[in-house]
Design brief:
By secondary structure, the protein is an alpha/beta fold. It has one domain: Metallo-dependent phosphatases (Purple Acid Phosphatase, chain A, domain 2). Helix content is 23%, strand content 20%. It contains seven helices and 13 strands. The strands form two sheets. The protein has a seven-stranded mixed beta sheet, with no helix packed on it. It has a six-stranded mixed beta sheet with strand order 4-3-2-11-12-13, covered by helices on one side. β3, α4 and β4 form a beta-alpha-beta unit. The longest helix is centred in the first third of the chain and has 20 residues. Bound molecules: 2-acetamido-2-deoxy-beta-D-glucopyranose (6 copies). One 2-acetamido-2-deoxy-beta-D-glucopyranose (NAG) binds next to loops.
Length: 360
């Protein structure tokens, strides 16, 4: 208990705690799991499954059929893409249809293809993962229990707050023996309507442990796009910014846009992320199933990308197709651009671009 309190204090306020303990927390968040590393050929590939929306209408024929289709999609994509790491970017479950007694069984089914393929992964949670009979925390704890290669973690108490516990990072090393990571994957919990608690000093502890932020690259995953993305849709040029653009963004499509009083509530998140994390290749969201594009957000000069709707559950249109976003690092150098593209279940590749200074 004492260690836990000390860990929480450390995470929140570096000055209020034992520095060595904070560094240990940051430097080795997964003492019992294999380190995530680049391949010996210097590449690293991530495949993102987003908005799977498991568990719709289990009492009807079509609900379980959707889930069977989503499993088929995963079993088709995983052996053909052979990712080094997988991200499940929110709305794993349509919580509105979940039953208290068995909601978390759905997690077992979602992770089964990843367990079978022995691929490390982690998840974010979305607005549909927090409902009457399911919470983000329940999903995370179940995933940790049934998936040995899940890197999903719960933030220390106070960070993210009630109903929003899924804030964490996964360090990626070039080689297992390296003392510092070359890439940080950030995961943020985008529950609706949160207010900020105390500020986290995780990035300060990283800088103390690993040196300046500029030494590392980063990618950030969050289920719901920042609100600044909404107005950029009107500026899209499908030649420069390719990818399906079938979902008009409106109230609730991005963070803090459900009502007037909400607007700007995600500014603290957006400011902090962009001030403290360097070499941020992109911020990646799901939530709006008909969009696949990437665009530069001019106030922070950072690229934002939509995922691809991967689940047969959730709203959609058969013509949009189902698939994944892939991200391919060709080098562990954090300043080298990252290739990213949409791949449909049937194999079609589209919106293949390089995330870098030249884009958008
Ligand atoms: C959960 O329980 C409901 C109601 O009994 C049932 O229809 C559904 O198939 C169950 N789901 C799972 C994942 O076991
Ligand atoms: C399942 O996938 C098949 C093949 O793509 C499709 O024809 C069918 O409509 C899908 N069923 C559901 C319920 O999504
Ligand atoms: C929650 O689960 C209970 C029993 O497991 C069920 O009766 C109820 O309908 C569920 N609530 C919703 C909103 O689905
Ligand atoms: C958190 O950071 C913001 C922005 O820098 C600042 O305005 C706020 O006072 C800080 N909150 C706490 C509790 O330190
Ligand atoms: C869209 O981008 C292309 C390629 O840069 C450019 O040639 C074209 O003029 C742009 N279209 C508009 C409407 O700006
Ligand atoms: C994406 O484009 C790059 C550069 O043209 C090319 O080398 C790569 O093979 C393409 N990727 C896919 C999956 O088609």
């Amino acid at each position: 208990m004492k260690a836990l309190i000390s860990a929480v204090l450390c995470f929140l306020r570096l000055s209020a705690c034992n520095l060595a303990y904070a560094l240990q927390l940051v430097a080795d968040p997964y003492p019992d799991k294999p380190r995530i590393t680049f391949k010996p050929d210097g590449t690293f590939k991530i495949t993102v499954f987003s908005d799977m929306h498991w568990g719709e209408n289990p009492w009807d024929v079509w609900g379980p059929q959707q889930d069977a289709n989503s499993t088929r999609l995963m079993k088709t994509v995983l052996p053909s893409e052979k990712p080094d790491f997988v991200v499940l970017n929110g709305d794993l479950i349509t919580g509105e249809n979940a039953f208290k007694d068995n909601a978390t069984f759905l997690i077992d089914r979602i992770v089964a293809p990843l367990n079978a393929a022995r691929i490390p992964f982690s998840s974010t949670q979305g607005n549909h993962d927090n409902q009457k009979n399911i919470t983000h925390l329940q999903e995370i704890l179940r995933e940790q229990t049934v998936a040995p290669l899940s890197y999903t973690r719960v933030a220390p108490a106070g960070v993210g707050g009630e109903e929003g516990p899924g804030n964490y990072w996964v360090p990626v090393y070039e080689k297992t023996t390296d003392s510092t990571p070359t890439l940080i994957l950030w995961f943020f919990d985008s529950r609706g309507g949160f207010t900020y608690g105390d500020n986290s000093t995780a990035t300060a502890a990283m800088n103390a442990a690993w040196g300046p932020a500029e030494n590392r690259g980063a990618l950030a995953f969050v289920h719901i796009p920042p609100h600044l993305i909404q107005n950029l849709q009107a500026t899209l040029n499908s030649t420069k910014e390719p990818g399906l653009n079938a979902d008009a963004l409106g109230s609730g499509s991005t963070q803090s846009t459900t009502d007037e009083a909400d607007v700007g509530q995600d500014d603290a998140f957006w400011n902090s992320l962009n001030a403290n994390v360097k070499n941020l290749h992109a911020v990646i969201s799901g939530h709006d199933h008909g969009n696949e594009w990437c665009i530069r957000e001019p106030t922070k000069n950072v690229i934002f990308c939509f995922d691809k709707h991967a689940g047969y559950g959730g709203y959609g249109d058969a013509s949009w197709g189902y698939g994944v976003r892939n991200l391919l690092f060709s080098s562990a150098d954090p300043t080298v651009g990252v290739q990213t593209w949409i791949r449909l279940e049937e194999g079609e590749v589209r919106a293949n671009i390089t995330l870098g200074a030249q884009y958008s």
